[in-house]
Amino acid sequence: MHQHRFSTTLAGAIASVCVALALAACTGDAQPDAPSSSPPVTPISETGPTASPTPPALPEQPPATRGPVAADCVGAWVTPPPDSHGYLEPLRVIRRVTGVRGPLEVVDLRSFEGPESPPSDKGYLLDIQRWYVKAFAKDDLSFQGRFLVESREFGTGLVAVAPYDTNGFRSPDWVGFQFDSGDPEARAYPGLPGLWAGVPYDFVAGGAGLQIPGFPDEVVGCLSAT
Predict the structure, then answer these.
(1) Tell me, what DSSP letter sits at residue 196?
(2) What is the pLDDT of residue 194?
(3) How far apart are CA 160 and CA 152, in angstroms?
(4) pLDDT per residue as tens digits for the range 146-155
(5) Does position 107 have pLDDT exceeding 50, yes or no?
(6) CA distances to 8, 9, 47, 76, 149 from 130, in Å
(7) How many CB atoms lie within 10 A of CB 145?
(8) Do you find a cis peptide bond into 118, omega within 30 degrees of 0?
(9) In the prediction, which pLDDT does 51 show?
(10) Rounded distance, CA 60 to CA 57, Å?
(11) Fewer CB within 10 A of the terminal residue: the chain, N end or C end?
(12) Phi/psi of residue 15, each to 5°?
């Protein structure tokens, strides 16, 4: 899962996205011990129950497949065709990062684009491809959750995860994980599917220090009614 803050150079961006994050699914060439230029993150609790193995709740009606352009969703959002790259790519990343096996049942999937957080004038950070996915594993009902995937010029990764029964883009539901070379052990966290390595932090509010949110204001509405 790669972190949402970036340095002002491409090298720094690769280091912070593809290296300094515990669950990176990026394709960059940075070394795993490269330093991160990001401020400290705020840990979340490790106590409490993990995701329930009971059957997940399903919507009474099929979710919408597109949303309108708005101030908080500048490019609108759309559900790509199920057999398209835009639909299968985030599922591939989720599988690669989490190691989940068997078929995934997708409950909702949205694709949308927008600027970086924090804002940047770098061309490769002006328009980030993002996906929202709500899904569960048919063969393992303890694996049910909501996922955020981001794609940039230098890589694609899973940036945050939230419990299945949450909604929208709210704190402290969405959790990111920052790479910690001194503690690579993966752990279970309350309400989250699978095991996660790294230092957990609030992806919505950001970490300590600069308190940079994971999403800019221009795209937070793309998760409305999820």
Answers:
(1) B
(2) 87
(3) 16
(4) 999 999 888 8
(5) yes
(6) 21, 21, 30, 12, 6
(7) 24
(8) yes
(9) 59
(10) 9
(11) C
(12) -65, -45
| Region for residue 216 given its phi and psi (left: phi exceeds 0; alpha: psi -120 to 50; beta: otherwise) | beta
The length of the chain, given as a count of residues = 226
pLDDT tens-digit profile of 118-170?
665 555 556 899 999 999 999 999 999 999 999 988 889 999 999 999 999 99
The residues, ordered by sequence, that sit 6+ positions from 180 with a Cβ below 8 Å of its Cβ are 22, 197, 198, 199
Nearest to 134 by CA among 177, 85, 173: 173
**pLDDT at position 14:** 34
The identity of residue 12, as a single letter, is G
At 95, the amino acid letter reads R
CB atoms within 10 A of CB 178: 23
Q: Are 212 and 42 in contact (CB under 8 A)?
A: no
Cβ count near 113 (within 10 Å) = 18
The pTM (predicted TM-score) of the whole model is 0.78
Return the beta strands (E) in the chain as ranges: 66-67, 77-78, 104-114, 128-137, 140-152, 155-163, 175-178, 199-202
CA 39 to chain CA centroid, Å, is 19
| pLDDT score, position 73 | 97
Tokens matching residue 52? 């329930």
